Structures are given as C-alpha cells and as structure tokens.
Amino acid sequence: MLSHHQIAAATRIGMLTREPDTAAACDQALRELSRALPLDAATLLTIDPLTRTHVQVAGIGYTAEISRALAAEFVTTPWYRNVVGQELPPSISEDIEDPEQPGPRFRQGWFYAERVRPAGFRDGVTGALRHRDRLVGLVHLSTESADAYDGEARRLLASVIPALAALADPVARAADVHRLSEHGAASLVTAGKAIDLPGRDRVRALQDEEFQGLIRVFAGTGGRRLRLLWPAGGAWYRVTLHRHRPDAGLAADTVLVHETPTEMPYGLSARELEVLTRAATGQTNQAIAQALYLSPRTVHSHIEHLLRKTGAASRAEATALAVRDGLLRPDQIHLAFFVER
Fold first, then answer.
1. At what angle do helices 315-325 and 296-310 cross, to 10 degrees?
2. Helix (H, G, I), strand (E, B), or coil: what is residue 88?
3. Angle of CA points 206, 211, 216, to nearest 5°
4. What domains can be seen in the chain, in order of their start residue?
5. What SS3 string covers 55-74?
6. What is the pTM of this model?
7. 15-25 tens-digit pLDDT
8. Residue 163: which of 128, 131, 137, 125 has the closest Cα?
9. Number of helices (H) and strands (E), helices first, in the chain?
10. Is the pLDDT of residue 95 over 70?
11. Beta bridge partners of 55
C-alpha cells in the first residue's frame, strides 16, 4: 500500500508539468522520485525528434559513462524491446525465467555484466515514456540494494510516467509555452528542418524558400518574436515567429512558427504591404522606388492609398500601426528592424 509520503511525491511530480522551465522541472521530478522510491541513480531520457537518438535531460547519481551507455547502448539490447512492449515498467528483480517468454534474461546479458553490475547496482527499473500515443523517452532508476523494485514500486513508477512523459516530450508543450491559440498551424524549425507538433497542421509558408531564409535570419538575431504577413498557396496568413527557449532535445536556435489564415488587413494590396513595410524601416519614397523598381510617383500613390485604407493621418502613424499590428512582409535584410527583443 502506498504511503502518504509516496502519494504526495507523485502529486508533486504531476504538478511539475505546469512549470514553464522544463529543464528545472525534469530535475525536480527525479528528486521527487528519490523521495518516493528507493534509488541511488536515475536518468530521464528524451528522444531527439530529428535524430531519433536518446538524450539525457535530467540525471542523478550515474557516472557520465553510465549515462551515455543508458542513452546510446541500452536501446540496442533485447531488454529495451521488453521495456517498450510493457505497460508496467519491468525491473531486474522481476526478470525471472518465464516459459512463456523464452530467451536470455537481463542479468545474463552483456549490458548488465559490463555496465550495470560493475557500477554497483543490483536492481533497476525502466519505464517507456509515451505522450499522446508517441514514444518520447525512457526513465531508468537503479539502486545498490537487491530486490528493491517489487510490483508496488513498479506501479508507483507507472502512475507518474504520464507526467514524466509530458516533461520529457520536446515538442508537445511548445504551443503551451508560447500560449498559442488553439487555432492555426504550428511547426518547430531547427537545423533547417521542420518538426510537426501533435494535433497541429504543418505551417504552409515553410514550403517557401524565401520564408525559410527569414527563419534562419530571425534565429540569428536572438530576438524574442516577430509578427508578419505571408502569402502561401494563393492565400495570406498571419505568421508569428517565436524564439523557442533551449529545451529537452531541441537546439538553442529552434523557432516556433504559428500561422493562421487571414484576409489582407484594411484591404491592402500585396504591393501596398511591401511599400508600408519599407516605409516602416525609415526608407524614403525614392529608396523604396529603387528597391521595388517603381517610379517615385507610383510609390507616392501607394502611400496615399494605404493611408486612406488604414485611416492613418500620416506616414508615421501608418508605419507605427504596421509595427504594432504586424502588418509587415519583411525581407531578410530588413527583418531585424521589426524583431521584438
């Protein structure tokens, strides 16, 4: 029977899924586990969404060598397949001969002989972390005591695995972290590759090489956010780029892109939006005309039209409106003017 102390620890682990600092929450989750279960070492692993390799996001007690082995070598063993195939986390102490499951036991394998036993551990338990029907990582616990992880201990670990999986999943909480609306497509972009978010469509603008270039430049600015308008597939979209904080399994330059369909605000034309964007950088009509291969008179006409459409009393008021509401279609050169720090 679970003690009040163990139930309290499990509850605190569940509450950690609300914490905005995922890395700190993962560390705290393992400390809470150490109060609820016998352990001398523990590691929480996530699966890198790009390379599909296991990466440690929090650890207690393991040497660097053991941590690397658990992340890289353990997944090559038959025991890993056993872990992934069970809902109740299996333990070394429960790994006994079973006529219905023939084959070598974990204690008879090379990983136990070369990695686990030399480190002084006599019992261990491993759970597969699944979140929203996806395998997202592993949790390992080890202890120097024999027969420490009985059925009750394994059930307790199983009860907190959903919370551990939510913490270890590098993509599932991205939308929550940036408080995105429930509507619209969203993707994480890192190392030039897009990662789909559960329950979200992939951002359509990512099909545009020019837009991909904007993301790379934005990531390099170190800015926090950029709002803009972008055409894709014959339609216009409001797009927001968010600098995603370094997180479990994701690089420091990861960008979260959120996209929602929109009509062109104020009935602006695509050309008027380009002119407004360049005016917001402080360019003169002459400079805008040269950049867009237009005559100064044509630029002047576009300025007059967009002032009338937006209801702005002056060019300065119109550009302030553009920056405030993200009525922008910046190029890579002028993007830095509009990045929120």
1. 70
2. coil
3. 100
4. 4-168 (3.30.450.40), 172-263 (3.30.450.20), 265-341 (1.10.10.10)
5. EEEEEECCCHHHHHHHHHCH
6. 0.79
7. 999 887 888 99
8. 131
9. 12, 9
10. no
11. 46
